[in-house]
């Protein structure tokens, strides 16, 4: 490790490693990159503990286009991330699609409005009435459903650690350096950040600092005398077995079931021979950064009742695994924050993804690399999700938040 780098990235999971990759693959960037990761095992990283899926079904065009880029990038990941002498990093992208269900008038209006945005962006999403829904997925009880929105392509789930490790391996192969250490202080001289001090005692000069520290983003910002409205929120995921699995029963997509979002908020998708499920908690307070105790009661109280009501196939199910991870939750509007601080221009945020970090990582990494290299966005304009809206208390509206 040197004593000075053009870019220091705080956090080396999927967001930090995506930034490092896009910087090092850009021929117009010739600088040095250091990624500081406090836990190189990534055991408790939001990346590692996520449900690892991607969807195009958002209500804002920017979020749709971010995921369109992510979907295309994931499909071509093995070739793009190939490192000489190593096996291609296969992500096993299962394009099962997303299925949103609405049982109220407000829900129907939201799905229709969202669909107009999605179709205008070229997303392969269709709206179905009750009969079409029942025909496509005969295991479901649909008498209460007024409208469904189904993504026919470009949506699904994939390997979360595969995405992160692929970015990291390729970034390192291209010359980015990684160090297992923790940033404990950030030097600042007026309108510029100047250095990071590591727990090991080393001080590293930095031309630009990127905050990619996930749920700990506010801690990193405060070291620079700044702030960001991001806090850890706990989400518990359950893997369950089915006595009579409905996987393979769909009349679309070669029998594969989608990731279904029930009107209750409970979601469920296939996970190999099992199913993965979760639900928004009834109470959702900020938690300690080291609190990863699952909320065991959510399965019995929220998930199982909703799923058993929705399908007879989910009446006899048994939990086989569970874990809790953290959302890096943006308390202003539950959306990503990508951009420089307007008063400290060489401190760049890549935070607040609120559960969407994996699917938005490729576009966010590319966007941050463009800000550093060119001083502005060159491909997808992410200005609407910049830090200025935080200072102005101006939420970025996204209605399709899970």
Highlighted features:
402 residues, alpha/beta, D-Amino Acid Oxidase, Chain A, domain 2, 2 domains, 8-stranded mixed beta sheet, 10 helices, globular
Topology:
Blueprint: E1 4-10, H1 14-25, E2 33-37, E3 53-54, H2 61-75, H3 77-80, E4 98-102, H4 105-120, E5 125-128, H5 130-136, E6 147-151, E7 156-157, H6 160-173, E8 177-180, E9 183-189, E10 192-198, E11 203-211, H7 217-223, E12 230-242, E13 259-261, E14 267-271, E15 274-278, H8 297-310, E16 317-330, E17 337-340, E18 347-351, H9 357-374, H10 388-391
Helix pairs in contact: 1-6, 1-9, 2-9
- What's the total number of strands? 18
> What is the share of helical residues?
25-40%
Q: Oligomeric status of the shown chains?
A: single chain
Q: How would you sum up the global shape?
A: globular
Mean pLDDT: 97
Runs in which pLDDT lies below 50 for 5 or more consecutive residues are: none
CATH class label of the largest domain: Alpha Beta
The total domain count is 2
CATH architecture identity of the largest domain: 3-Layer(bba) Sandwich
Query: Would you identify the CATH H-level superfamily of the largest domain?
Result: FAD/NAD(P)-binding domain
Structural class: alpha/beta
Strand content: 25-35%
Helix count? 10
Order of helices and strands: EHEEHHEHEHEEHEEEEHEEEEHEEEHH
Rg of Cα set = 21 Å
């Amino acid at each position: 490790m040197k004593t000075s780098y053009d870019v220091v990235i705080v956090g080396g999971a999927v967001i930090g490693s995506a930034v490092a990759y896009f910087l090092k693959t850009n021929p117009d960037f010739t600088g040095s990159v250091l990624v500081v990761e406090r836990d190189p095992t990534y055991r408790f990283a939001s990346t590692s503990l996520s449900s690892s899926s991607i969807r195009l079904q958002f209500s804002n065009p920017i979020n749709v286009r971010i995921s369109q880029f992510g979907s295309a990038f994931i499909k071509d990941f093995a070739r793009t991330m190939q490192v000489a002498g190593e096996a291609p990093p296969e992500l096993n992208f299962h394009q099962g699609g997303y299925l949103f269900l609405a049982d109220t008038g407000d829900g129907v209006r939201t799905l229709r409005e969202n669909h107009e945005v999605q179709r205008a962006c070229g997303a392969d999403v269709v709206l179905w009435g009750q009969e079409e829904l029942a025909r496509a997925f005969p295991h479901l009880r649909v008498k209460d459903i007024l409208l469904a929105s189904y993504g026919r392509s470009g949506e699904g789930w994939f390997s979360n650690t595969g995405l992160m490790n692929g970015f990291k391996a390729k970034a390192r192969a291209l010359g980015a350096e990684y160090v297992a250490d923790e940033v404990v202080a950030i030097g600042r001289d007026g309108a510029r950040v100047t250095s990071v001090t590591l727990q090991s005692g080393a001080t590293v000069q930095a031309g630009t600092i990127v905050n990619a520290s996930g749920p700990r983003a506010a801690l990193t910002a405060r070291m620079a005398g700044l702030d960001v409205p991001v806090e850890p929120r706990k989400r518990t995921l359950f893997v369950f077995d089915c006595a009579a699995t409905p996987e393979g029963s769909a009349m679309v997509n070669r029998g594969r079931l989608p990731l279904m979002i029930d009107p209750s908020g409970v979601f469920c998708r296939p996970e190999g021979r099992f199913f993965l499920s979760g639900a928004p908690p009834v109470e959702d307070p900020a938690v300690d950064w080291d609190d990863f105790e699952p909320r065991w009661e959510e399965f019995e109280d929220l998930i199982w009742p909703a799923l058993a009501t929705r399908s007879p196939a989910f009446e006899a199910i048994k939990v086989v695994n569970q874990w809790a991870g953290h959302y890096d939750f943006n308390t202003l509007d539950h959306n990503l924050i990508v951009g420089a601080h307007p008063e400290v221009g060489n401190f760049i945020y890549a935070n607040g993804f609120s559960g969407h970090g994996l699917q938005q990582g490729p576009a966010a990494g590319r966007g941050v690399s463009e800000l550093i290299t060119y001083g502005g966005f060159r491909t997808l304009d992410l200005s609407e999700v910049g830090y200025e809206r935080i200072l102005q208390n101006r939420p970025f509206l996204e209605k399709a938040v899970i």
